[in-house]
Amino acid sequence: MDEALQYNETAKEGQFRISTSKGGTANAAQQAGSFHGQGSPDRDDIKQDILQYFHIVDDALHNFLKNKKSPLVLAGVEYLFPYKEANNYKHLVEEEITENPENVKPEEWQSQAWEIVEPLFHQKIERAVEEYKELAGNDTSKVSHDIQEIIQSAYYQRVDSLFVAVGEQHWGQFNPDTMTVDLHPEPQPDDEDMVDFAAVHTLLNGGTVYAVEPEKVPDEAPVAAILRF
What we know:
- This protein has helices spanning about 1-5, 45-65, 85, 105-140, 145-155, 195-205, and strands at about 15-20, 30-40, 75, 95-100, 145, 160-165, 170-175, 180-185, 190-195, 210, 225.
- The chain is α+β, with helices and mostly antiparallel strands.
- The protein folds into three domains: about 1-65, no CATH class; about 65-140, no CATH class; about 140-225, CATH 3.30.1330.30.
- The protein has a four-stranded mixed beta sheet with strand order 5-11-6-10, with helices on both faces. Strands 8-7-9 form a three-stranded antiparallel beta sheet.
- α3 links the parallel β3 (about 75) and β4 (about 95-100).
- The two termini are about 50 Å apart.
C-alpha cells in the first residue's frame, strides 16, 4: 500500500504526502496531483489510507474488467470491505467471503466463490431463455436455431446471446468471402468445430455465451441465438 500511495514521510514533523496520478493511476502520462496531511509513521488515519488505496486497485481492475460482465466476489478480512465504496465495477456481487486470504488456497477460494455466483448464472440463463421465447413468439427475425445462420451471424457481430449444448460439436468450414458454411458429419482436414467457432466470435464481438445441458437450449436445438439485428 505504501508503494501504491507513494508515501513520503517526515518522521520528525509527523507529516506525509501522497502523490497519485490525476484522476487515479490508470494513465501514467497525466500530471500527478498531491495530498498533504498530518499523520504518524503508523498512519493514524489508516481507514482513509486504505480507501485511497482501494481507489487505485479499482482503477487497475477497471482496465482489466472493462467490457466484461463476469461477477466479482470480494474476499478478505472484514475490515477491508470498505472496498465497495471505491468500486466502480457494476457486477460486484453483494455477498462476500469473510476470511483471511493467507489461510486459504486458490482452489478453496474458487469453491467458495462458485457457491455465491452459481445461482446468479442460473438466473441469468433463465432470463435469457425467457427473452428468446418471447422474441420467438413476436419477432422470429431476432432469434435463430439454424446452425448455419448462427455461424454467419456470429462472424458478422449479429449474435447477442448464444446458447450451446454442452458437448455439442459440428465440424466444417466457414468462408467469409462467400458467406457459406460447409458442415461435415465427420471432421475432415482443415475443419474446425463450428459450434466453438460461433462461441468464440460471439464473445469477441461482445456477446454472451451460455453453455447449458442439451435440454435447456431453446427450441430443443443443438444451438440457438438471440440476434442483434
